[in-house]
Design a protein that fits this description.
The complex is a heterodimer of chains A (61) and B (439).
Chain A: H1 2-26, H2 44-52
Chain B: H1 9-25, H2 44-56, E1 78-80, E2 99-100, E3 111-112, E4 116-118, H3 128-141, E5 145-146, E6 163-168, H4 176-181, E7 184-188, E8 199-201, H5 208-214, E9 222-224, H6 234-247, E10 252-257, H7 263-272, E11 277-281, H8 292-297, H9 302-316, E12 323-327, H10 333-341, E13 346-349, H11 351-356, H12 388-413, H13 418-421, E14 428-430
The chains are: A mainly alpha (61), B alpha/beta (439).
Chain lengths: 61, 439
């Protein structure tokens, strides 16, 4: 059980670190500010369409 | 700037010989391929083929894949639409690879004979030997390398006509006398590998000499903040450039930014602030010191950002007045040609130079004493593993191989100059579903 607890704690700590990195990059001081901020997402499909449309072999999907 | 620590030369020589033997032997495939070498972007084949190019000055001919990685996206899905063989340029025609770094009507003209130069890697993140090897190679090729943000060691002065100095948010090691040496001054607003996060040099690498250069405290981690807190508008940015131009009126100004969604607006802002070069740094660059989540999840890959900027500047009628340099994830000569076809003028190379010097992409750049191959380290023992002349020759050979391949690509496309390739995305084909034929 100790082993399992430690694994879960490690996972949570790793997620915490990563969340802090991305929140810092967005200039947010608390995760609550991120709620509903869809505008911060970039969608690969849209970006690819914008960049690659017109190139032979690239199809809009 | 050496630290006083005695390193047994025999031990260094033995270790160095072993490493160099490995860099020579593995690309011959005499022992097969290492199953754990590389990742999907920098595959084992790409690492070995870069070592081979650094040794011979030519691409490998033993079946190593030296043109593409295995990422399943971006550059790896593109190929060129080469002309039929009878329409290729004749062998005796040598396509021109030169690139002008100032397209403005004012300030000095600087032209480099190859469409790439070395990226900013700071003193502290890499060793002084690596900086000197890069500078020496840049001088041999008439191109540039960049100091990065950690200061400008005096040992680089003999190469000063080929060294860009960087001013970044931490202002570490920025001095007026070093700004006056540089033909190009680079403002780093952000890095593609860690946009919005700034830089971070862990305490273990902030040795006495590094701390002295950065005017900080030894063995204490150094944070280079994000953003420049004096720059929140194009006008502020212009004031920054004016400050640098006041100190060195001869210098060209380069602006290094990452790839946010509004990168096109950033590009226009840089143009109106009188920058000569805009370096757009995509998300796949950076050493192991950059957090994985930042490299993979923040900002755009370079191949998505460059077409956006190119088209927008064209629509604004200012594309021919500013030089766009692409960086962050450029691994091969093919990548260089592809990103130029997507709209860049040239490329800035960082990781590929480290791979040429023996980097295996093990991603231990920031930890403890640093790189076990003596690249991204400040440890006085590990630094000895890379000899400056050996390093310069390896980078120079890599440049020779890249130039050879770029000329070959241009010949097959029927183009006489790399400048003719810019923005010619019609010469590319996208191969999502099945491998491209006759590539």
């Amino acid at each position: 059980m100790e082993w399992g607890i430690q694994r879960l704690k490690n996972l949570a700590a790793a997620w915490r670190d990563q969340l802090l990195e991305v929140l810092g990059a967005m200039g947010l001081r608390e995760v609550r500010r991120l709620r509903g901020e869809v505008g911060r997402c970039m969608f690969q499909k849209n970006l690819e369409e914008e960049a690659f449309s017109g190139i032979e072999g690239y199809e809009r999907r | 700037m050496k630290e006083d620590k005695v390193v047994d030369p025999l031990i260094t020589a033995k270790h160095t010989d072993c490493l160099r033997e490995g860099f020579h032997q593995w690309p011959t495939l005499a022992f097969g391929k290492m199953p754990a070498m590389g990742d999907s972007r920098w595959t084992g084949d790409l690492i070995f083929s870069t070592w081979k190019q650094a040794e011979t000055g030519l691409p490998p001919d033993n079946g190593l894949e030296y043109r593409k990685g295995n990422s399943g996206g971006g550059f790896d899905l593109f190929d060129f639409r080469f002309l039929p063989k009878d329409a290729w340029l004749a062998k005796e025609i040598e396509p021109d690879l030169s690139l002008s770094l100032n397209r403005r009507s004012f300030d000095r003209k600087i032209e480099i004979p190859v469409p790439f130069y070395g990226a900013g890697m700071s003193y502290g993140s890499i060793s002084e030997h690596i900086m000197l090897a890069r500078a020496k190679a840049a001088k041999m090729w008439g191109t540039f390398t960049s100091t990065g943000e950690g200061g400008y060691p005096d040992s680089l002065e003999p190469y000063k006509d080929h060294v860009i100095t960087q001013i970044a948010t931490g202002l570490f090691g920025v001095r007026e006398e070093t700004m006056q040496r540089a033909p190009i001054i680079e403002f780093k607003y952000a890095q593609g590998a860690k946009p919005g996060l700034g830089g971070h040099l862990l305490g273990d690498k902030a040795t006495l000499v590094v701390a002295r250069m950065r005017e900080s405290v030894p063995w204490v981690s150094l944070f280079s903040p994000f953003p420049f807190h004096s720059v929140y508008s194009v006008e502020d940015h212009k004031k920054h450039i004016d400050w640098a131009k006041t100190i060195n009126p001869q210098a060209l100004i380069s602006v290094k930014v990452s790839t946010p969604t509004d990168i096109d607006m950033v590009a226009v802002g840089s143009y109106y602030a009188n920058a000569h070069i805009l370096q757009i740094d995509g998300g796949y660059g950076g050493t192991g010191a950059a957090p994985e989540i930042a490299k993979k999840n923040i900002a755009m890959p370079i191949e998505l950002a460059i077409p956006k900027v190119h088209r927008y500047l064209q629509s604004e009628g200012i594309r021919d007045d500013i030089v766009i340099m692409a960086s962050g994830g450029i691994r091969t000569a093919d990548d260089i040609a592809k990103i130029i076809a997507l709209g860049a003028d040239g490329c800035v190379l960082g990781t590929i130079e480290l791979v040429a010097l023996g980097c295996t992409r093990c991603a231990n750049c920031e930890r403890g004493r640093g790189c076990p191959f003596g690249l991204t380290t400040t440890d006085p023992e590990l630094v000895q593993l890379v000899d400056i002349d050996w390093g310069a020759e390896r980078i120079s050979n890599l440049y020779a191989s890249i130039s050879y391949q770029l000329r070959d690509i241009l010949r097959r496309l029927g183009l006489r100059s790399i400048r003719e390739l810019r923005g010619r995305s019609d010469l590319l084909k996208y191969c999502k579903k099945e491998p491209c034929q006759d590539a």
